[in-house]
Amino acid sequence: MAVDITLLFRASVKTVKTRNKALGVAVGGGVDGSRDELFRRSPRPKGDFSSRAREVISHIGKLRDFLLEHRKDYINAHSHILSEYGRMTDAERDQIDQDAQTFMRTCSEAIQQLRNQAHKETHSQQVREHRSAILDFTQDYLRRVCKLYSEQRAIRVKRVVDKKRLAKLEPEATARTREPGSSEEVSLDPSQDSGEKPVAEEHAEKIPAEAQPELGSWGDGKGEDELSPEEIQMFEQENQRLIGEMNSLFDEVRQIEGKVVEISRLQEIFTEKVLQQEAEIDSIHQLVVGATENIKEGNEDIREAIKNNAGFRVWVLFFLVMCSFSLLFLDWYDS
Amino acid sequence: AGQWMVGAKMAAASIRERQTVALKRMLNFNVPHVKNSTGEPVWKVLIYDRFGQDIISPLLSVKELRDMGITLHLLLHSDRDPIPDVPAVYFVMPTEENIDRMCQDLRNQLYESYYLNFISAISRSKLEDIANAALAANAVPQVAKVFDQYLNFITLEDDMFVLCNQNKELVSYRAINRPDITDTEMETVMDTIVDSLFCFFVTLGAVPIIRCSRGTAAEMVAVKLDKKLRENLRDARNSLFTGDTLGAGQFSFQRPLLVLVDRNIDLATPLHHTWTYQALVHDVLDFHLNRVNLEESSGLENTPAGARPKRKNKKSYDLTPVDKFWQKHKGSPFPEVAESVQQELESYRAQEDEVKRLKSIMGLEGEDEGAISMLSDNTAKLTSAVSSLPELLEKKRLIDLHTNVATAVLEHIKARKLDVYFEYEEKIMSKTTLDKSLLDIISDPDAGTPEDKMRLFLIYYISTQQAPSEADLEQYKKALTDAGCDLNPLQYIKQWKAFAKMASAPASYGNTTTKPLGLFSRVMNTGSQFVMEGVKNLVLKQQNLPVTRILDNLMEMKSNPETDDFRYFDPKMLRGNDSSVPRNKNPFQEAIVFVVGGGNYIEYQNLIDYIKGKPGKHILYGCSELFNATQFVKQCTQLGKF
């Protein structure tokens, strides 16, 4: 196990100090050492990069605290069984969602800015590596906090969907036998729906349509206080049929919903992978462009070389011809 | 009660886990490390020297360092630029040059705050040197914490450790056994070894009972270690073995047994040719600190005339505890390894095909009415396939790794006919009748390198009861020289044998039989890559090497002439005495075997096999340095020149 010898170190510092004083060796600053330290340290460039990075991190920390604080209310309010009234209205939840999103966007922009700045400033290799690692950490932190948020959101969306489904089904069961007015509720609910289940809506609309002739016959028969047994039987049969239809619809809808959730998850994974590949593809693109440039330049150089070669040959020929002419001339001159 | 359970579990925790935990705590500014998924990132810079690098590299990968928040990791003696606003964690040995460099860093004010961690305890005077430099640079408040980590040993496996890698020359077999060593040099060597062992026990958190053989270097180490442990225990205020720092050790009711043996009791094992995977890799390839370096020769195409010759690629692989295949098969005989790689490859291909099949199924989407129902299954399948992709990729990487390593090993085996050597040596060591004469093998030109022949002959020389006659010896020597061997190791072994004979009877190696199962036809039939034609499938029968036997005797408190006169030390007893009578009559549950002078994987594997047959018991194996046969022969050559 490790042994903490910091105290021992401080003791040795004291010993060395007293020894130095006894020997009369000046220790940089002496008694005013501490004050000098402060002065010495403040002009040192604090490095606004790291202070900015720390700012971003504290922002993200605030976001995280904010989300965690309201998380319980956010989720808890959905279970109607537990609490009589939701402590958070939907409007408040939407507000939270929006705030969180804008916050996350600003944070990621800030990180991007820092990255660009780090790129532009030329520093030694080590400092650069260090800075990019810091930015990676910050981004990872942001991603983790965003996951908190998206988890919450997913739960909320799921609960809303469940609630809507429940709300639709209950009135259905009771609508046929007693209040026709409740079918109005049914028709209202689908319209309120965020439009996630067009199939269900269609069917839901058909029901009010079907309910109309019922209403009609019902309305006609309203004068009579008693129903004939055949009509009761007919209504019961109709009931059963509608319940069966509703159940199958319900199942189908649930399946589709499950699939949609899965597909969205898959999409997330795929987008992640595609984004990862984007960087690689970019670099490959750069390499290819560079390679084509190099090849073009190479071609140019080869052409130059050929030309030079040809030119060289011409000169050699010329020289030889001149030499032979001069020889001939000298020979003629001499003879 | 929960604490007690944790304690009981930790008592058996491997030394690797403990060292990793200690390292992680150090990296976390010496505060216990707690994983928090929404924690704020804290960044730091890690500075180490070569010792620190050797300690950290088998335990933590670069990714794990990143996870701990380390942005940069640098060598102490490299050029480092000032990085303001970042705390720096130092992990160095307290040597003169390191201290000087650290003082320089303080003067240049490279970092914002300094967390100094010394691998082994720092002396008071050196601490004052740092204090002086800190004062001069007005940097005293910047030195945030100073710690003695007591981590001066390298853990390679869960239950195996080595003392050092950087200065193994200092504590090598040669250094300990050379005839011209002075007393002071010996003292230095012993002190180094004892320091590391002490750190080891501090990290393990237990005070062992020490037993060692008489009259050897091991005895010197035992005496010093006992003294050091005793001093530390007496000093109640600063003892490292009491209080919260100990934790788990208090809950284990049994103290471990430390068996200190000297390399000289068994010189045949380091020379032995081996047949298990890990030992083979260590023997044949370049393998140290869990990293194997392969030179891959590029393909066999003819290079066009005039072109530059293709460079051989150098590849290095890390064989880590995460690698499940390695953990399972590092002790298996080689043909088994080859077979398992094939199996893994096949299962991987099956999984790959599954994933590919999904592609074709997805093509049916929307065309079929039954597609909707199929779709729901397929999305589930697709999700699981996508999430299992990283696993598959990792598996493929491991399979590739092991295929390459095993192929390289196989090439060596085939080129040098190592299976023949292995079989022959086993026979020699177990004193069964030899079917081929030694001279034949030595004079055979295509069986093995000269070094292999030298090894074989040395093993023969070591294990025979009576020395061969002069004429025979001359014959052998001539054959060896013809084969190109250097005869110096033989010189040394002769001296050793003479000395060992005076001390005690040479150790016997027990009975063993090897059953060659002929050609490995099964492998060939499955069309494997590992065409092991001509390589015999040798089955290892359990045998106990001398070290294992000694351990067995001591652990089970058996009476045996070999171990009866071993010395007994108990640092916890008030009065130090040299009694050879053990006070404790119960068999030990935990034992640590330490070989002074060097060890190797063959012994390690043998110990592991031995302890597998005894559930509930644990063994740790350590040595002052880890060498393979080549290095050992080199050391013997140097020794033989005296």
From TrEMBL, chain B:
Keyword Protein transport: yes
Keyword presence, Transport: yes
Subcellular location: Cytoplasm; Golgi apparatus, Golgi stack membrane
Keywords annotated in UniProt: Cytoplasm, Membrane, Protein transport, Transport
InterPro entries, sorted: Sec-1-like_dom1, Sec-1-like_dom3a, Sec1-like, Sec1-like_dom2, Sec1-like_sf
GO biological process, one term: response to toxic substance
Annotated signal sequence range: none
Pfam family, one: Sec1
Organism domain of life: Eukaryota
GO cellular component: cis-Golgi network; Golgi cisterna membrane
Topology in the lipid bilayer: Peripheral membrane protein
Known function: Plays a role in SNARE-pin assembly and Golgi-to-ER retrograde transport via its interaction with COG4. Involved in vesicular transport between the endoplasmic reticulum and the Golgi.
Family the entry assigns: Belongs to the STXBP/unc-18/SEC1 family.
Name the record gives this protein: Sec1 family domain-containing protein 1
Species: Myotis lucifugus (Little brown bat)
Taxonomic path: Eukaryota, Metazoa, Chordata, Craniata, Vertebrata
